[in-house]
Amino acid sequence: MKYDYDAVVIGGGPAGSTFARVAAESGMEVLVVDKRKEIGVPVRCGEGLRNFEVIREGLELPKACYSAPVEGTKVYSPDGTALVWKTEGTRGWVLERKTFDKWLCELAVDKGAKVRVYTRAVGIIKDEKGRPGGVRLSHGGREPYEVRAPLVVSAEGMESMMARQMGFKTVHQLYDVDTCYQYEMGPYPHENLIELYFGNKIAPRGYVWIFPKAKSKANVGIGIGGSLNTGKKQGGMDGATPKRLLDDFISSQEKLKIASTLDDFGGVISVGAPLNEFVQDNCMVIGTAAKQVDPTHGGGIALAMESGVMAAKFAAAAHQEKDYSRQRLAGYEKQWKESAGKKVAKRLLVRKVLEKLSDDDLNHIFNSIAGKDLEAIMAGKFAGPVAKVVATRPQLLGVLGALMPEKKEGS
Ligand SMILES: Cc1cc2nc3c(=O)[nH]c(=O)nc-3n(C[C@H](O)[C@H](O)[C@H](O)COP(=O)(O)OP(=O)(O)OC[C@H]3O[C@@H](n4cnc5c(N)ncnc54)[C@H](O)[C@@H]3O)c2cc1C
Question: What would the CATH number be for the domain defined by 7-47+96-170+275-338?
Fold first, then answer.
């Protein structure tokens, strides 16, 4: 086959642009295609991002890419008890993804990558052995044309249709997604804290978030378990759709119910386990397309960038040897599973435990622990916080004991 590029990347979000930047810097000729007319638009995200090494490593986040810095997190139990948690690990930003995504993409262009927007990948070209060898592209719905490359990278986000054509099992089960709704609202007098509200009546198997933005604005959103999004009418009311629950929440909050809505959208995010396989011969899947998302809160920007860097380094090594076999690319999958993958697995465990708790249990937990215990939980250190909770409610050991597999294995 005669190739047009060394790699074609499908999707110009944080994963695809980061992959393209690192691969182009290593000398690969890379084409990124995105079906959107403009990179980063429209925004479908809460835009929260914690301080994150991939951004710190040689990259300075420009002021235009974020709306407000975040000082910490305030978590509310169903009965309204608030825990404030402010540490180095809770600092971050609420981004302006319109400019952030475009900035990441422009960094890739600066390193020599080519980008085509309003260009949808509509099919995978296979070689005589059935391995991907390029992509069929359509600009604005026009007649498809072919672009050939020995490596095809799916950075398609939740849709991941091309990854499926390449043989990856990217179908989502309802139980393993959160369905979301969000408004940008203002004015909302916030304290530069991420606010999270828990409770089965507020957000079944999920939470309401308020992410602070500049000029007294905020992203106010909700995510609920996909299988709980019934939409069934109850007593003349709409069922448990995220929009209805979010509207109910907003009406219950004095400061929010007088604010205006400035943006309005719904979306779906994976909160289950990542794919088992991220690579096959001549192809890779990165970011949310590979279900690399934190299952406790649905955050995927940092993980997408991290996997973009990781995958690009292995792709560049494969390019040196002109060997894009599964075996040659597998280092990315192995490294991800040994690093980010371990953290994601623990977070999945937390999600599965949280969904078994009643509002009364949640109230009890919030009243038993402090902000620093939340930090330990997010770091995967469960023993201390669990001991505090079960000391006064031993019957919770049955559920919370699942958080301590290391203890079970050792005992
Ligand atoms: C409501 C909501 C709120 C969220 N809030 C947060 C948050 O606060 N913080 C956080 O970290 N994460 C959040 N997320 C998750 C986050 O948005 C994603 O995890 C992140 O954008 C993943 O980056 P990515 O590059 O893997 O994919 P994406 O950013 O989804 O990029 C994929 C790109 O691929 C393009 N594409 C798809 N198919 C094709 C095709 N066939 N041809 C060409 N282009 C294609 C799309 O147009 C898109 O631009 C939220 C998600 C939702 C739904």
Answer: 3.50.50.60
3-state secondary structure of 337: helix
The rounded distance, in Å, linking the Cα atoms of 16 and 156 is: 8
Q: Whose CA is nearest to atom 33 of ligand 1?
A: 11
The predicted model scores a pTM of 0.95
Condensed to tens digits (0 to 9), the pLDDT of residues 175-225 reads 999 999 999 999 999 999 999 999 999 999 999 999 999 999 999 999 999
Place of tokens 């995927």: 300
Q: How far is CA 110 from CA 34, 113, 130, 314, in A?
A: 18, 7, 34, 21
8 Å CB contact between 184 and 262:
yes
Instruction: Determine the Cα–Cα distance for residues 25 and 110; give it in Å rounded to an integer.
Output: 9
225 lines ligand 1 (CB under 6 A): no
d(CA 254, CA 208): 16
The three-class DSSP label of residue 349 is: helix
The CATH topology of domain 174-270 is D-Amino Acid Oxidase; Chain A, domain 2 (3.30.9)
For ligand 1, mutation pick of 17, 35, 291 (most atoms within 8 Å of CB):
35
Report the alpha-carbon distance of residue 229 to residue 242 in Å, rounded.
7
Using an 8 Å Cβ cutoff, are 186 and 262 in contact? Answer: yes
**222 to 31, 41, 305, 332: CA distances (angstroms):** 35, 21, 24, 33
Instruction: Please list the residue range(s) of the chain that carry CATH number 3.30.9.10.
Output: 174-270
